[in-house]
């Protein structure tokens, strides 16, 4: 009787033949997939709480719902969960840290943080062979309590956040230097109004001034790249967000910054896939926050849906894999948090694989020839090609669980490791 490994291999052999018939080189697609890092966000692991010892819930429009047991409460627990999550995900990826995840050992305000608070993460990442990305944290803090930070009317508050941002750029540069590749440092600034502003202009003028101050010091692009993330609306900023798409599109273009597009930050029926080929005409690189909004920017776990498939198709069809940093941004506390990472990251990678398994040249030639019949027919046939067989083989050959086998591992982990954790916030 054939072993399950042999069954996977046989299915792969026949899938490889089916794709070859369409002119697709499956081995080349798998090799390319192995070079695509996904920047996995640390904050799914603990509901965006971090290690500052705060007890209060999130602020500034971020909302996490659910109370699934086993939340990581210390850097050690978070790393333990991440190591386990990465063991369920094929390929080599990155870890995206927020500033509030430093190891502070006592009260350290956001404007006082330094590389020393991230030494543990840098060492751990080196040990794991992982690279790091970073984010200043402009939320869940008394200086952000009224919904404004870098665009605040009070110059002292603006200065506090400028100092935080400058400190974060130094940390990101140190991470990049240590790992030998740029640490993408993403700026999301929540500032906005719940109700109709009397001046949409003034906060934008203040924000651009604050940002220009923050970015005065040029840092080596080999160490860190600054990214700016736009948003249309949030909880408590329904009527106006200072850092809108137009604001940051212009900012990134004129200041040579990476633009960050979050899949949940636009009108509910607006996707980010169509934007990629436009913005890459004007900005050098893009950062994506692959996420899933359900009716609003709800940050649900990424599923293998049309939106994610279109995003990856656009990246591959446009030959943009080297100019797009693929990051994740979701937080769900109603399911096992490690499973959330596994589901969202595996789906993102599966969508990259599907895009790499398209006969791109054939489709684009048909289009150039005006043969839209072939274009549509092939795109539809591709939907039922044996992607799953190639994905399973990729998982098997990289030594990670095949199919829903990863869920069994999560169940074991859930019984062996996570129950030892209480539910309260613990100061490390
Ligand atoms: C919020 C933004 C932002 C955050 C993280 C925690 O709407 O999407 O990226 O989710 O920085
Ligand atoms: Zn985001």
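^ Assign residues to that structure.
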């Amino acid at each position: 009787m054939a072993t399950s490994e042999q069954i996977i291999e046989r299915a792969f052999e026949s899938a490889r033949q089916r794709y070859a018939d369409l002119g697709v080189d499956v081995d080349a697609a798998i090799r390319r997939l192995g070079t695509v890092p996904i920047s996995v966000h640390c904050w799914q692991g603990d509901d965006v709480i971090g290690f500052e010892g705060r007890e209060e819930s999130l602020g500034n429009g971020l909302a996490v719902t659910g109370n699934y047991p086993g939340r990581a409460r210390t850097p050690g627990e978070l790393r333990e969960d991440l190591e386990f999550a990465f063991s369920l995900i094929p390929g080599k990826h990155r870890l995206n840290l927020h500033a509030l995840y430093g190891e502070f050992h006592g009260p350290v305000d956001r404007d006082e943080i330094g590389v020393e608070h991230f030494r543990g993460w840098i060492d751990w990442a080196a040990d794991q062979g992982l690279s790091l990305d970073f984010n200043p944290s402009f939320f869940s803090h008394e200086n952000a309590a009224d919904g404004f930070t870098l665009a605040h009317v009070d110059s002292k508050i603006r200065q506090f956040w400028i100092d935080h941002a400058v400190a974060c750029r130094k940390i990101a540069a140190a991470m990049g230097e240590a790992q030998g590749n740029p640490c993408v440092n993403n700026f999301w600034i929540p500032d906005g109004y719940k109700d109709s502003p009397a001046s949409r202009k003034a906060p934008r003028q203040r924000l651009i001034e604050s940002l220009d101050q923050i970015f005065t010091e040029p840092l080596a692009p080999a160490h860190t790249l600054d990214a700016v993330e736009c948003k249309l609306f949030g909880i408590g900023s329904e009527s106006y967000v200072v850092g809108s798409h137009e604001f940051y599109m212009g900012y990134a273009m004129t200041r040579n910054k990476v633009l960050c597009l979050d899949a949940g930050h636009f009108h509910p029926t607006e996707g980010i896939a169509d934007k990629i080929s436009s913005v890459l005409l004007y900005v050098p690189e893009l950062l994506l926050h692959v996420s899933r909004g359900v009716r609003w920017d709800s940050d649900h776990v990424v599923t293998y849906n049309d939106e994610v498939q279109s995003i990856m198709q656009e990246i591959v069809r446009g030959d943009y894999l080297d100019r797009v940093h693929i990051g994740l941004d979701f937080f769900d506390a109603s399911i096992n948090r490690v499973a959330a990472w596994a589901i969202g990251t595996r789906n993102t990678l599966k969508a990259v694989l599907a895009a790499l398994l398209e006969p791109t040249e054939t489709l684009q030639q048909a289009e150039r020839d005006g043969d839209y019949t072939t274009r549509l027919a092939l795109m539809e046939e591709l939907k039922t090609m044996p992607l799953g067989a190639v994905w399973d083989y990729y998982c098997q050959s990289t030594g990670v669980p095949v199919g829903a086998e990863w869920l069994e591992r999560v169940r074991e982990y859930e019984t062996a490791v996570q129950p030892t954790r209480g539910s309260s916030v613990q100061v490390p």
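Residues 424-428 have pLDDT under 50 and may be disordered.
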